[in-house]
Amino acid sequence: MQDVIRRILTARVYDLAVETPLDALPRLSGRMGRPVTLKREDLQPVFSFKIRGAANKIAALSADDLARGVVCASAGNHAQGVALAATGRGAHATIIMPVTTPAIKVQAVRARGGQVVLHGDGYDDAYAHGRMLAEQTGALFIHPFDDLDVIAGQGTVGLEIARQHADPIEAVFVPIGGGGLAAGVAAIIRFLRPETKIIGVEPVDAACMKAAFEAGEVVTLSHVGQFADGVAVRRAGEQTFRLCRDLLDDIVTVDTDAICAAVKDIFEDTRAVAEPAGALALAGAKAWAAANPGAGALVAINSGANLNFDRLRHVAERAEIGEGTEALLAVTLPERRDAYARFLKTLDGRSVTEFNYRWAGHGEAHIFVGVALREGVGEKAALIKRLTAGGYGVEDMSDNETAKLHVRYMVGGRATGLPHERILRFQFPERPGAFLRFLNSLQPAWTLTLFHYRNHGDDVGRVLAGIAVPPEDAAPFQAALDALGYPVVDETDNPACSLFLEATN
Has residue 229 been placed in a domain? Predict the structure, then answer.
């Protein structure tokens, strides 16, 4: 312990790293009823805390070590730190990265002078290849977390937190992959603020440190989830395990939805976009605070912001569920238009965030519907009870991974017995009652055959609707659309509709 503290206090990180701010999160603090602050390691030159450990390790190398070159294995953030630190001292850096690494991280490593070798499906494959390459070439292997100089470099995050937050801190939340950041932060916080709890946070599908705690020794997980790729590690380090075992007060695990909700929380308070691993600690802070009510100050570390832009689509879809403000339900109701209006009224003014339906023609309709919740997770059970009492068949899909990842986008397909179906693309006003007004504009002879809507946070809702209209009603139907006043485009002849949605007789 004394050796680790000495290394942290004498770490050489600021030639490359910067002291990052500790930002208040006023919106989230107000919701949680306690002060919450965020350590902004996403503001480092490589957008991750990993520059600290890499800089400290490379600074400690001799001229002979540098002449041999360095090798490291990383999913991206450690790789950028090593590449930047090594090239800055004139050393050749070979970086082994999994083939699954986000392109933004691969490009960043190359831009910082590292020679990238893509190998394996995950960190462990890359690690094994990096070790083999180091032995073959004589280069020095720079471990991403199980190295005391790396741990000490990461520990300077905790040193800054203790200096920047003068008031008492109830708990500091640290993301855990292999454990380097957690071990370093826990060591210095325990030394400087012994009354402060240090809580590690892991994804529920990549909890290698928690598994090691439970087994009493380091274990290798059979597989890990890749959503939070920055912490997707199957095996914790030997040194990091010993330090974390002795210094951490607890480990919290959180799922993908909770991480996505934390990404949204960070954005709403700071306008910064965290990578999933970067938002992990805040997700853990929220989960821990829910189980441990109080008013004490909480600090979470945003460990990085190396996020592929296209990942934001998935984050946005899952954030509402993760923060308990949306329920996803499969509801069975009679296949009649008045049934939809009755269903909407049963929601008691709650906003519909998603509505997917395709006519089946056998008396019952199965709709996939998202409903905004006003009071969080506890409200969902009451809503389901209300719907069930109203005679509806209800299945909760909020925690159904297959439904959230796939089925919600596949509701529909071809239908039979719809000779006069029109496919129309609408823009609905994004306000309560817009769907009900649309339903009321349809005459009884016009059958609603398809409806697809998802709230995307815009001023207007984008809706695809199918309506079976007899040819003799073409003029009255057009008049009804004109009276409705919603912008509409007829997509009946669109190849996307004719190939995948067109009714068969």
Answer: yes
